């Protein structure tokens, strides 16, 4: 999952794919398909595990969460957007404590 969520490159070209964002959008769709039918708890656990692995390897980038949210939000209901925002904010807060 970490690769699916956080595989965007860092640096001045971060998030740019040269394909108008189609590659990032495809990755988001793949993530949604992978987790379709899973409970919120299962998804949240997988996300937290991915963040932990990324943090331990020194590859965690909070901005990648924001890019993911920005792309994914159009595919979510209002309730899902709110919950995703809460989770991202919680993760970012934990990383600054």
Strand content: under 5%
- Structural category is mainly alpha
What summary fits the major beta sheet? none
Instruction: State the order of secondary-structure elements, H for helix, E for strand.
Output: HHHHH
Give Rg in angstroms: 13 Å
pLDDT average, as an integer? 75
Notes on the structure:
The protein is mainly α. It has a domain at 39-97. Helix content is 68%, strand content 0%. It has helices spanning 2-6, 22-35, 40-56, 62-72, 78-96. Helix 4 packs antiparallel against helix 5. The chain is globular. The model is unreliable at 1-17 (pLDDT under 50).
Write the layout of secondary structure elements.
Blueprint: H1 2-6, H2 22-35, H3 40-56, H4 62-72, H5 78-96
Helix pairs in contact: 4-5
